[in-house]
Design brief:
Two copies of one chain form a homodimer. Chain A contains nine helices and two strands; from the N terminus they run H-H-E-E-H-H-H-H-H-H-H. With about 210 residues, chain A is mainly alpha-helical. Chain B binds a DNA duplex (30 and 30 nucleotides) through helix 2. Chains A, B: It holds the Pfam family MerR_1.
Chain lengths: ~210, ~210
Amino acid sequence: MQISELSDRSGLTVQTIKFYIREGLLPKGSAVSATRSEYDERHLERLRLINALRDIGDLPVAAIQQIIASVDDPSVGLHELFGTTQYAIGPHVERPDDPHWRAAREDVDALVRELGWKVGGGAPARDLLAHSFVALRRLGFPITLTDLRPYVRAATEVAEHELRRVSDDAPRTRTVHSLLVSTVLYEQVLTALHRLAQEDASARRFGA
Amino acid sequence: MQISELSDRSGLTVQTIKFYIREGLLPKGSAVSATRSEYDERHLERLRLINALRDIGDLPVAAIQQIIASVDDPSVGLHELFGTTQYAIGPHVERPDDPHWRAAREDVDALVRELGWKVGGGAPARDLLAHSFVALRRLGFPITLTDLRPYVRAATEVAEHELRRVSDDAPRTRTVHSLLVSTVLYEQVLTALHRLAQEDASARRFGA
DNA sequence: CCGGTTGGATGGCGTTACCATCCATCCGAG
DNA sequence: CTCGGATGGATGGTAACGCCATCCAACCGG
């Protein structure tokens, strides 16, 4: 198909598609002549993935580019892709040379050790959590292990469920998409349900 | 204290503080002369709140401004503040006049009804969830109620715990901060733990 | 043959969250 | 009393981001 059809079917403008190609998110079509290239279903599929990661996952184009690079490299295993995704998602907070920060980060590391979780030391989620600890303490709401228990339980159960759902006997493309969907899109599902549940709980506690 | 001390103690530049005052996030100091104003601990506290909402919650300044306006209005009840916060957080997705979208939105509404949740019909989280449904279907990963069950359970338990933790016998300021902290900051805590738990599950399933 | 499409390149735009400057005023140490 | 430095208030600039608009030469297809 031509780029205009790709544009129609994906719902993205031709300009945007060109932009994604320039940024390395989408491979070029196969050149048929100097002014014509042929695109196929894989391009459409790829655009749908990009769109989902941007629209729902709210990922920056640069992060998607990194993820795509791993997706397209067949030597990258599933767990490695997982790491790439987590790292690309960020957030990449500065780690100030500050005692409060170091204490919070140490608390996070201790928690991970205690739970026996196999998590890379450079995982951005560690920093995100530590960052939250610092902010909570600065606001006078110090966080305790008791506070965290329900979160840990919820996170564990959901994550187990998600990883169980990733089929690894399908073609690589399918498996990889499945993994990305589990991590990026279902994170939003969890967030949305969390917010809805909060509103319900708030209504029952404070509602008129 | 003067603005320079406020700047030092909050870690924000004088320019940024001026900017927040202009945007209505921070009340002016009480004018002592034409070129001097006095700030107090409440200003500092407010800056810490703003900083947490931006840094951790990643909220746009405009959203914080709306939240602050509710916080400062004593006639706004806690549940109402909750609604304001949810609405300010967004995301405000367009709702295309599209059968897929309408079907997804109807699925969400049915789910909320079935769970008996008291949630406003205009809650952005409904749209966020519906949006996710659409994207998942477009990618060929249709979502089922079975998939959702663990998420609903996790969200419910965490939300219950959070709302239980909001003390409503403290001064309004404290209670209100507590509510905001529960909704905005603990959402990030949940997300971070979710990611860590996923990495652990991935390591055990796919790791070398 | 000619209107319309494409690849490829380049420049512009709208938003967001500030930062930098400037000016007139003012404070306060000496 | 004076002068360096801080302040309030206003205005303009900036950097990143994710596109969109335009242009050109080449090309296709009716």
